[in-house]
UniProtKB/TrEMBL annotation:
Name under which the protein is recorded: WD repeat domain-containing protein 83
InterPro entries, per the entry: WD40/YVTN_repeat-like_dom_sf (IPR015943), WD40_PAC1 (IPR020472), WD40_repeat_CS (IPR019775), WD40_repeat_dom_sf (IPR036322), WD40_rpt (IPR001680), WD_repeat_MORG1 (IPR051980)
GO CC aspect terms: catalytic step 2 spliceosome; cytoplasm
Keyword entries, A-Z: Cytoplasm, Repeat, WD repeat
Name of the gene encoding the protein in the UniProt record: WDR83
Annotated Pfam families: WD40
Organism: Propithecus coquereli
Residue ranges that the Swiss-Prot or TrEMBL entry lists as coiled coil: none
Lineage, top ranks: Eukaryota, Metazoa, Chordata, Craniata, Vertebrata
Family to which this protein belongs: Belongs to the WD repeat MORG1 family.
Predominant place of localization: cytoplasm
Listed SUPFAM superfamilies: WD40 repeat-like (SSF50978)
Swiss-Prot/TrEMBL GO biological process terms: inflammatory response to wounding; mRNA splicing, via spliceosome; neural tube closure; placenta blood vessel development; regulation of canonical NF-kappaB signal transduction; response to hypoxia; response to lipopolysaccharide
Protein localization: Cytoplasm
Presence of keyword Zinc-finger: no
Length: 315
């Protein structure tokens, strides 16, 4: 008699705290992995941006040049540049190696909530509480944006970019997807102010979080509601959400000091991870491994799966 094959092991969730970064930059407004997940950026209320090796807990460089708190940042595909946006209404392009400001783009009428590079890192897209998304050419000397997307009726909270799409969430309760190949705009009405949007890793779905303490998974092409995820608290703050590295779980910050993981297909709560006291302001999920970064107050925690052993016996 043949024994059944052992069941493949399910995805492991990062629930072992590996490192704590005391960032020393006031409140950490956002934490972001770079493109390959080896480094991370932290955005501080003290106007600085910092680059870290999160698994080692080492600070690599500090970037100073914003006039007010930094609210979001992103790294380019080749790790040579960073972009950031903040309360000073400016979008800044940085040289990673030297720490110098390459360009400072001004034009938004309010604070910049979100920034992203396009795939080639030739354009920075920035979303602001002034209800606009502006596209800035990194190689041009022109001070004005090359394009402005101003369909939103209230502030832009979240912008994500694929190779031919821009996904934007707004406080007006709509998710807008700009298909740049087709020259079309698709809009889905959620109803509650949107705090974060993102593409699934397979590009088929969009995840939307809003201030009714609900996350919704939508079919990208049809707008059909595929799943709803609740149990966390999100009624006041702009909090991050994402999908795990293999699209198996929906992950969200919460205002009660936890990070919530739901099974994407079943919609059931898989884990409520206690992270700290107060609001978990930001999170970042590693692009290929079960590794999570969380920001609470002035600290960032790095989490791995239970079976993970750090190199050199660290733990």
């Amino acid at each position: 008699m043949a024994f059944p094959e052992p069941k493949p092991r399910g995805p492991e969730l990062p629930q072992k705290r590996l490192k704590t970064l005391d960032c020393g930059q006031g409140a950490v407004r956002a934490v972001r992995f770079n493109v390959d997940g080896n480094y991370c950026l932290t955005c501080g209320s003290d106007k600085t941006l910092k680059l870290w090796n999160p698994l080692r807990g080492t600070l690599l460089r500090t970037y100073s040049g914003h006039g007010y708190e930094v609210l979001d940042a992103a790294g380019s595909f080749d790790n040579s540049n960073l972009c950031s946006g903040g309360g000073d209404k400016a979008v800044v392009l940085w040289d990673v190696a030297s720490g110098q400001v390459v360009r400072k783009f001004r034009g938004h009428a309010g604070k910049v909530n979100t920034v992203q590079f396009n795939e080639e890192a030739t354009i920075i897209l920035s979303g602001s509480i002034d209800s606009s998304i502006r596209c800035w050419d990194c190689r041009s000397r022109r001070p004005e944006p090359v394009q402005t997307l101003d369909e939103a009726r209230d502030g832009i909270s979240s912008v994500k970019v694929s190779d031919h799409e821009v996904l934007a969430g707004s406080v007006d309760g709509r998710v807008r997807r700009y298909d740049l190949r087709m020259g079309q705009l698709f809009s889905d009405y959620v109803g509650s102010p949107i705090t974060c949007t993102c593409f699934s890793r397979d590009g088929q779905c969009t995840l939307v979080s809003s201030l009714d303490s609900t996350l919704r998974l939508l079919d990208k092409d049809t707008g059909e509601l595929l799943g709803e995820y609740t149990g966390h608290k999100n009624q006041e703050y702009k909090l991050d959400c994402c999908l795990s590295e293999r699209d198996t779980h929906v992950v969200s910050c919460s205002e009660d000091g936890k990070v919530f993981f739901w099974d994407l297909v079943e919609g059931s709560l898989a884990l409520a991870l206690p992270v700290g006291r107060g609001v978990v302001q930001s999170l970042a999920y590693h692009p290929t491994e079960p590794c999570l970064l969380t920001a609470v107050g002035g600290s960032v925690h790095c989490w791995r799966e239970e079976a993970y052993e750090a190199e050199g016996g660290e733990g």
